Amino acid sequence: MADVLPALSLDLTAQPPADLKDLFKAEVASVCLEVGFGGGEHLLHRARTNPETGFIGIEPFVGSMAKAVAAVTDENLQNVRLYDDDAVNVLDWVPEASLDLAYQLYPDPWPKKRHWKRRFINAQNLDRYARALKPGSEFRFASDIDTYVDWTLRHCRDHPAFDWAAETASDWKTPWEGWPGTRYEAKAIREGRIGRYLTFLRR
């Protein structure tokens, strides 16, 4: 963590590059952001199977970040950059319309009603996503907590920059192509909860 993370981490004290593809050692054609990558299963799988895509992974928890740093180092992944603090900082730092895709998968649901104001999905943060995403790109959200799924649907459908992409009843019940699963999803399945997979298009 002391030796490797500084080289992988975004330096938000510097001006962002005009083109986020320049953040990566690898030659990449697009840039994807994952907010709160948890155990890193999804982030690392996508980085391995999509070497032409640059991935920015954000995770504030030290244990989870340490696992990601170890895997990126051991596998010499050249298309991953990391950030270990608040995702708001990154969303405010990146240039306007610079991201090709953004994920938020199984975030902390803050299930008690009095804590709902702590949920990351809110009007202000959707403004941030909307600023950072390119028109026509996707924002993807997954959760097994019905109240958070409903919350996200309502907030995204009320936001002028996003359209829900579902066309059939099964669309939001089916993971995206190449989905590797996550440990949080596995825990939900063990406990009898079902994941929902929402895709929103940036207008």
From TrEMBL:
Binding site residues for substrate: K112, D144, T182, R183, Y184, E185
EC code: 2.1.1.33
Entries under InterPro entries matching the protein: SAM-dependent_MTases_sf, tRNA_(Gua-N-7)_MeTrfase_Trmb, tRNA_methyltr_TrmB_bact
Catalysed reaction equations from the record: guanosine(46) in tRNA + S-adenosyl-L-methionine = N(7)-methylguanosine(46) in tRNA + S-adenosyl-L-homocysteine
One Gene Ontology term, aspect cellular component: tRNA methyltransferase complex
This protein's pathway: tRNA modification; N(7)-methylguanine-tRNA biosynthesis
Coiled coil: none
Signal peptide start-end: none
Described purpose of this protein according to its UniProt entry: Catalyzes the formation of N(7)-methylguanine at position 46 (m7G46) in tRNA.
Family: Belongs to the class I-like SAM-binding methyltransferase superfamily. TrmB family.
The protein, known as: tRNA (guanine-N(7)-)-methyltransferase
Gene behind the chain: trmB
